[in-house]
Design the sequence.
């Protein structure tokens, strides 16, 4: 009991841990709404009120995530963690923050550019979005594993790498087809290429995050 | 009076400079406020001095037989050399300055310098960084075994490092007091004019060091401590434990040594374990400077003061 109380977390550490969990929940909700948003878009192939409602929610989650991340940083710098842990958590949160940003960006491109996706790309686009969302969900689980224990980290890191590879190859196939079909104008090709690249960037950032976790976890192996 | 003043200066300088080796890592990583760290250091330095400082006091007091005036010159030269070298931002060891001053005055006056004690002291100086490096290797693997027994979440690791920095800081303060009080009190204890008991001499010496910690260690603790932090929390713990254990061992042997050189040795040990290129020319220069230049500078200053006194007996 004596030694266990020696290891008891400080109130600031407990607060930081709680806030990180809240931040991760926001990212999960953001992912769920992103899937709903894409499904709504692909069902109706136009920007509907429902789509805008989902998009608005995603923007809200992204903004709330930024606020929460800043709050965690503030508490960490107010003597919440030692510099090494602080540096690790800070770097990981900043890397993770790019994921909701990218999801929000995809949704924004869809409605600001009012993109009409040709039927031949709809199924692959949906798959591309789902693969990238899966990569985001894996990063959330990876962050939880990193915070709570180091078990299963390498499997999760590997899984994110696989998602990124799948996303890359699907993205390449889509872009390859874009520039060989006669159904599109050059203008449409460029617009769609940028959209596919933007969706694929989500798993690129997820992989970047996973690499960082790998580096940070090595420091806790003796 | 002059002897007391010299001891106060020496103890003050020692406390102000060496407190960084005790709680520097904890303060610069914001685990502890400077005020708390300074109070803990002052308290445990004094406890260590009283509990286990007698050996060092006897050793320093037995290097050479001196009159009160000669003792004042030795101590003043040691204090002045520490002050000058610190001002010039050169690595300095109080233990080596004190011995340099004592031996120099002893040689000039033709007093009988105790060769056996001197050899023991110099051997311990050389053994300090080497011993700390060996301890660092051993403690690295031992602590790694302990850490590996826990489910090492980010927060468990953080908590272990935070608590460890405080507990080991207290141990390091105790060791510093036990080891280095001989530098401050050895000559006082030997001086016939005071006729102090060894415990009282240790208490006075510990209080002088504590005075330095409480009044002037703030900036040094913050800046020097940062040098340890980039090692990562676990290695900083190993360095603290190794250097504290090393100077504690030499306290039991009864020879005051340099805590800074113990830290350098421990960092070298960590570098060896991790295969890192942490050992650079600056570190070697730092240790060699402490071994050779510090006693020489203190000896030269002592000789100069003694010479001036011969020319002008008013001094």
Sequence:
């Amino acid at each position: 009991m004596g030694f266990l109380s020696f290891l008891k977390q400080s109130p600031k550490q407990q607060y930081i841990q709680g806030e990180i969990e809240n931040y991760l929940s926001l990212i999960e909700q953001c992912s769920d709404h992103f899937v709903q948003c894409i499904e709504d878009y692909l069902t109706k192939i136009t920007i509907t009120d429902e789509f805008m409602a989902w998009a608005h929610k995603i923007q809200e989650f992204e903004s709330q995530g930024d606020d929460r991340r800043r709050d965690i940083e503030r508490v960490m710098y107010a003597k919440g963690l030692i510099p090494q842990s602080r540096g690790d958590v800070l770097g990981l949160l900043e890397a993770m923050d790019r994921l909701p940003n990218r999801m929000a960006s995809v949704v924004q491109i869809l409605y600001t550019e009012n993109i009409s996706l040709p039927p031949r790309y709809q199924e692959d686009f949906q798959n591309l979005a789902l693969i990238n969302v899966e990569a985001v969900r894996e990063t959330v689980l990876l962050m939880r594993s990193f915070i709570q224990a180091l078990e299963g980290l390498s499997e999760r890191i590997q899984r994110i790498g696989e998602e990124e590879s799948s996303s890359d190859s699907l993205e390449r196939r889509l872009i390859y087809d874009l520039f060989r079909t006669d159904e599109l104008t050059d203008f449409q090709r460029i617009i769609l290429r940028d959209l596919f690249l933007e969706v694929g960037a989500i798993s690129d950032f997820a992989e970047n995050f996973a690499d960082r976790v790998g580096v940070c976890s090595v420091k806790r192996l003796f | 009076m002059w002897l007391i003043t010299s001891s106060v200066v020496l103890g003050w300088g020692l406390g102000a400079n060496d407190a960084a080796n005790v709680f520097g890592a904890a303060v610069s990583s914001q685990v502890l406020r400077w005020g708390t760290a300074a109070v803990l250091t002052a308290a445990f330095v004094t406890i260590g001095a009283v509990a286990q400082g007698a050996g060092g006091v006897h050793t320093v007091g037995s290097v050479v037989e001196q009159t009160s005036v000669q003792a004042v010159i030795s101590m003043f030269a040691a204090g002045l050399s520490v002050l000058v070298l610190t001002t010039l931002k050169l690595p300095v060891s109080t233990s080596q300055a004190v011995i340099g001053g004592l031996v120099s005055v002893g040689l000039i006056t033709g007093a009988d310098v105790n060769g056996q004690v001197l050899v023991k002291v110099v051997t311990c100086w050389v053994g300090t960084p080497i011993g700390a490096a060996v301890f660092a290797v051993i403690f690295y693997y031992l602590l790694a075994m302990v850490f590996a027994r826990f489910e090492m979440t980010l927060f468990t690791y953080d908590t272990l490092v935070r608590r460890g920095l405080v507990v080991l800081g207290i141990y390091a303060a105790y060791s510093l007091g036990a080891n280095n009080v001989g530098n401050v009190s050895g000559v006082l204890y030997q001086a016939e004019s005071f006729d102090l008991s060894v415990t009282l001499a240790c208490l006075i010496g510990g209080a002088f060091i504590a005075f330095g910690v409480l009044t002037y260690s703030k900036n040094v603790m913050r800046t020097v401590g940062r040098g340890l932090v980039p090692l990562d929390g676990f290695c900083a713990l190993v360095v603290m434990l190794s250097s504290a254990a090393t100077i504690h061992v030499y306290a039991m042997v009864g020879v005051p040594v340099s805590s800074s050189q113990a830290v350098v040795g421990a960092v070298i040990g960590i570098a060896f374990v991790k295969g890192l290129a942490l050992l650079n020319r600056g570190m070697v220069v730092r240790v060699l400077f402490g071994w050779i230049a510090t006693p020489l500078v203190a000896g030269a200053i002592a000789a100069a003061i003694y010479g001036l006194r011969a020319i002008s007996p008013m001094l």
Summary: The CA atoms of residues 11 and 112 of chain A lie 45 Å apart. Chain A has a mean pLDDT of 90. The two ends of chain A are 25 Å apart (CA to CA). Chain A is about 85% helix and 0% strand.
